C-alpha cells in the first residue's frame, strides 16, 4: 500500500530509508521540522540496496528505493569510518566489515585485529563520513556531506553510541565518541554536519 506523500503539521513529511534505530533517533533530533516515518511503517520489507562503492551512491540508492515504494519524499544517509592505516577501510562496508549481519562488536573486533597486525607504528588517524540525501517523487534530489576527523584507539571506551564510536576520538577531544553523550555529539559529529547541510538545502531548494 502506498502512503500519502502529504506534509505533517510541522513541515515536511518523509519516509526514512533506514532500519537502524540509532540513526533514526539522531536524525529526528537533527531535523526537528521534519516528520520522519520509518520505512517499515509504510512499506514493510522494502529492499534498501547498498551495493555501490561510494557513500553518496548508496544513500541515493536507498532513498530512491524508499521513494519508489511509498510515493513519499524519502530521506536516507550512508556513513562509515575510514582509517588511514587500512587504506581507507572499512569505508563503505563499515556496517558489514566482519561479514553480513555482523554486530557492532564483531566489526570493532575486526578493526582492532587488523590494526594490531600491522608492523611498526601505524597511522591511526581516521575520518567518519556521512552523506545525507533527500529524494522527492517528482525527481528532485538533494545531497549533503559531513565529516569528522579523529584517531582510533585500540581499547574501546564508552557505551553512548553505536558503530565504531567506542574506538574513535575526535580531533580536540580526549573522550571517544562512545563516551560523549548523544545530546552533545549531535552538535558536531559527521551526521550532524551532513544533516545540518541537508536542512539548509531543504529550506532553500524545496
SSE map:
Layout: E1 13-16, H1 21-30, E2 35-38, H2 39-42, H3 55-70, E3 74-83, H4 104-116, E4 125-135, E5 141-152, E6 168-170, H5 182-185, H6 190-205
Parallel strand pairs: 1-2, 1-3
Antiparallel strand pairs: 3-4, 4-5, 5-6
Could you please describe the fold and organization of this structure?
It is a single chain. The protein is an alpha/beta fold. The chain has one domain: Maf protein (Alpha-Beta Complex), CATH 3.90.950. The protein contains six helices and six strands, in the order E-H-E-H-H-E-H-E-E-E-H-H. It has a six-stranded mixed sheet. The protein starts with 12 loop residues before the first strand and ends with a helix. The model is unreliable at 1-10 (pLDDT under 50).
- Note the total helix count: 6
Strand ordering within the main sheet: 2-1-3-4-5-6
Quickly name the level 1 CATH class.
Answer: Alpha Beta
Largest sheet: 6 strands, mixed
Uncertain runs with pLDDT below 50, 5 residues or more? 1-10
**SS class:** alpha/beta
Distance between the termini: 26 Å
Q: How many beta strands in the DSSP annotation?
A: 6
What value does the average pLDDT take? 93
Task: Give the name of the CATH architecture.
Answer: Alpha-Beta Complex
Number of domains: 1
